[in-house]
Design a protein that fits this description.
Blueprint lengths: L1 E2 L6 E5 L2 E4 H21 L8 H27 L1 H6 L14 H19 L3 H8 L3 H15 L13 E2 L12 H20 L8 H17 L19 H25 L1
Parallel strand pairs: 1-4
Antiparallel strand pairs: 2-3
Helix pairs in contact: 1-2, 1-6, 2-4, 4-5, 6-7, 7-8, 8-9
Membrane topology: Multi-pass membrane protein
Family: Belongs to the Lgt family.
Keywords: Cell membrane, Membrane, Transferase, Transmembrane, Transmembrane helix
């Protein structure tokens, strides 16, 4: 049995100014994504230039933050939102959704593509391999905050979280997600996109892989208390939102390669 390190969520405090580790992990994710994006932008097949990478990052950051917050409120806490609509703007209270952030980023990529005269799929295929860096960084932020822990377990690496409502050892599901959604996901997408692929194929692989990884981790992750299990005593909102991603991802890859073969 392990003990959560109980790291202070505030990394730097200067008077009333407090900088949280969670915010810093987002910053690291954006900066590393920007650096990797500039590397990809040097490829002869890149749809954007190195200079445009900075502008695109701004659009994507807006999509992540606004979409992530809106998605959390709508998908995971709609009851509280209906009772208090202003909670949508109280981002300092926490609450972000990957699936909402994905929708926000998709809109941002479409918007940016219009600005630079590129199609949505050109931008999406370019951006997809950069996303796991931010996902992995965000899961480290979740671990530091001691949030989104897993179900009780008796595995040797089970961990005691001071933020949990009991003294039971739990799966450190944040680290599972860091390993799958961050490290493994990045390796797969970076390798796959290192050569020119049919349009939509990289985006399809992104959707399918994330959907599978998230669906699997949800089996050991504690569901959100305000929702619990939606059905069968195991189906979670994360799985409901991830399954369509798997289907869409596989369909996109099949379509991309079939169209390319014609």
């Amino acid at each position: 049995m392990l003990q959560h390190p109980q790291i202070d969520p505030v990394a730097i405090a200067i008077g009333p100014l407090k900088i949280h580790w969670y915010g810093l992990t987002y910053l690291v994710g954006f900066l590393v994504g920007w650096w990797l994006g500039r590397l990809r932008a040097r490829k002869p097949w890149s749809p954007i230039t190195e200079v445009q990478m900075g502008d695109m990052l701004f659009y994507i950051a807006l999509g992540v933050i606004l979409g992530g917050r809106f998605g959390y409120v709508i998908f995971y806490n709609f009851g509280a939102f209906a009772a208090d609509p202003l909670m949508l703007f109280r981002v300092w209270e926490g609450g972000m959704s990957f699936h909402g952030g994905l929708l926000g980023v998709m809109f941002a990529m479409w918007w940016f593509g219009r600005k630079v005269d590129r199609t949505f799929w050109q931008i999406a295929d370019f951006v997809a391999p950069l996303v796991p860096v931010g996902l992995g960084a965000g899961r480290i932020g979740n671990f530091i905050n001691g949030e989104l822990w897993g179900k009780p377990t008796d595995v040797p690496w089970g961990m005691l979280f001071r933020t949990a409502p009991d003294a039971l050892a739990r799966h450190p599901s944040q680290l599972y997600q860091f390993a799958l959604e961050g490290v493994v996901f990045f390796i797969i997408l970076w390798w796959f996109s290192s050569k020119p692929r049919p349009r939509m194929a990289v985006s399809g692989l992104f959707l399918a892989c994330y959907g599978v990884f998230r669906f699997l981790v949800e089996f050991v992750r504690q569901p959100d208390p305000q929702l619990g299990y939606l059905a069968f005593d195991w189906l979670t909102m994360g799985q409901v939102l991830s399954f369509p991603m798997i289907v869409a991802g596989v369909a996109l890859m099949v379509f991309a390669y079939r169209r390319n073969a014609e």
